[in-house]
Fold this protein.
Amino acid sequence: MVPPLFNTSREIILGVGGGIAAYKSCDLLRRLQDAGFLVSVIPTRSSLNFVGKATWEALSGRRVQDDLWNNVHEVPHVAMAKSARGIVIAPATADLIARIASGRADDFLTNVLLASSAPLIVVPAMHTEMWLNPATVANVQTLRDRGVTVIDPATGKLTSGDVGVGRYPESSEIVKTVESVLGHASDLRNRKVLISAGGTREPIDAVRYIGNASSGKQGIALAIEAAQRGADVTLVLANAPETHLEGIDVVHVSTAHQMYDALQSHFEGSEIVVMAAAVSDARPAHPSDQKISKADYTTIELIANPDIIADLCKKKEKQFVIGFAAQTGEQAVAQGESKLKAKNLDLIYVNDVSGGAIFGSNQTSGTIIDASGNVTQFSQGSKSTLASQLLSIAIDKLGYAND
């Protein structure tokens, strides 16, 4: 598996303690994924008596590590601790809470906990008598004093027909707490977002092509941000074959026509469409499948490529469409505004790429213009920050935040 180009900041660890409520964490795992998180499961050895490793691997789509002595050369407990944005322990048994409170590191999960500085959310689930035992009460208070978020268990039916406090909370409550603690917005949950990125290439012959300097970084940042907010994301990515973005449907293309076909097939079901790709305006009329000799390589007859964004906007119904305009010179903003109106866009981001600026960089600066003519300057900042701002504008315009 090829690693992502960007740190997605969506990585969390789900630690599963050895209680009967372990089966409920299967649903929690799904709900965390729905909220845009990438989840690695670390079960304790005793929890595997309730839910097996194969189940966690099937649900998470990831290999499960539960033994401190596997792949020791990779120091996996440190690697996982460093990559996690947050850690959720659910269910947390009385014994596991006691071990965490005392700082023990006698299995893989507790080693990860000691090696991590990420926020920790603990979800106790046990019989009432165990929850109210003075030792457990003291251990829970110790964790809270250290800044750990402990979710009080619910009241209801327990095992053996008992009723009382100690029940595993609803998954929705746990997810809301995780989102709150991690500052994670999920305002695009279950929404479909379509994004184009990269630069298309139009073949001249077997080795040469017409292309541009687009790296695809802005579109990738947009895809990550949308997925992190819970969206169902399709990224049509031109000429970045090594790119892998977990949790995002990446469609690899090369030419403008290939991008056109891919976007057309996904446009109808999408609600937010962001056209960040740099698409070639023209292509060679007669590309050769053999290399053209130097002596014959004198002129290239060009024909226009389809205007992808204009054609898509003709089909626009509920979609909110954001365009990008890479311009040069003093008329950059005016040219971008003309493009906004001519192509029936809802929003456009205009940047001045004079002297090779912006392309290939992790930073960007430019101007945001909406269909009402409102202009917002985006000062120098990361492409991830811009992605967040553009999607927030779309969410506000579509009223998703109030759903």
In short: Residues 1-7 have pLDDT under 50 and may be disordered.
